[in-house]
Design brief:
extended, Trigger factor, domain 2, 13 helices, about 475 residues, alpha+beta, about 15% strand, 5-stranded antiparallel beta sheet, 4-stranded antiparallel beta sheet, 9 strands, Chitinase A, domain 3
Length: about 475
Amino acid sequence: MQTTNTPLSKSRLQIEFELPPERLTRSIDTATRRLSQQHRISGFRPGKAPRSIVERVLGASTVLDEAVELLVEDAFRQAIREQDLAPLTSPEVEVTQAEEGKPVVFKATVQVRPEIKLGDYEHFSFKPEIQAVDETMVEKVVDELRDSQASLEPVDGRGAQKGDYLVVAFHGTRDGAPFEGGSSDRMPLILGDDRLIPGFEDNLVGATKGEKREFDVVFPEDYQEESLRGQTTHFAVTVNELRAKVQPEASDEFARSVGKFEDMAGLKAELRKRLETNALDRARHDFADKIVEYAAANATVELPDVLIDQEVEVMRDELRSALARQGIGEEAYLKVAGKTEEDLHKEFRPQAEKRVKTLLVLSEIAKARSVEVPDSDVQAEIARARSRYANNQGLVRYFESERGRNYIRSTIRRSRTVEQLVDEWLAAHPEAPRLPHLEDAEESSTVETPSAEAAASVGATDPGSLTPPAATASGA
């Protein structure tokens, strides 16, 4: 078998094949047996009818077409093995010569794993940046704790203020007539959160319990209900309940109520310690992100469309999941946002390109550094997936499949590669602050993330797992 490779754009490869005539002869024999097994031919057992009879029943062109198809598939697989190629798509085949007694000539065009040329990813000039923890930050957390312990107390002697809790009854009309969704006997709201129509809550500032107010509100031009967009409506509102959030005093007693602390000083000391630990962890993450961006920016890779389109689908599934948690469907979201699926694809594409390049570059660095992931670690993640997604067997089957296992292995491999780069820089710069990782004690799960769920939902192939298969000997 003779082959000639011609690289094309977007990591496509055209392979021209020339096969000796005898390979077509052997393939015709195979095709004859297969067709005689698939079709009932009177007087012969399945697979035993001679070529002449099969051709008489099914037609000579049917036998030849089947033989050429089998031969093309076999020759393409052989070329993939011998040349250590990693195809991303099925080949587009063009047969230019297929006659008995002559060489078989055809072309196969396929997208393959792109060539990744690494640039510098170790000699960067930036350093970790650690945010200093001051008393203001500690006090903010104390206030958040107090707010979580706050109670709602009836308000007397003043009108409603931003942050107060109200229960109102309202009746809305447009041109003197009520409209759907414009009335409620009991609507709780926190004044200032602007959950209702813009401008509605502003008209209630200063209102007292039992007070009735009337005012006009103009619906925004992008309101979900098209018939109300830009429309002026009139509302009559009665404040039935008015309560204010009252926080407990920042006292020693409060400190004891939220933990094993003797006084406020002990509580603040523990909060400062946690904030400082979080600042170190955040600095490590940010530093790692900068290293990844640096490595990707210095690498050269021509991204194939098939990987970008796949990543767009992963991002769309991430969006669907995020919307579902809010009780919103993708179709409803697109309608409110005034977008089409094509718009969403265009919007996601630049970020998808960045993500694919990053995944490929990190996988190439991992390969260059011989970072390996033991099978036991992959199995542990699959066990987590079985437990985490016990009610979604589709996701479990993905992680149990070869494609899912490759996703897990590649993800762990990339993560450990980045951590290795960070640790090596810290070791080479002993003057820099130590940056322990909050997850050092137990590596975070690979399968329990929105990205993993999205990849499983769309059956994605991890770009970093597209390593060429080991070469094997094969006769022509």
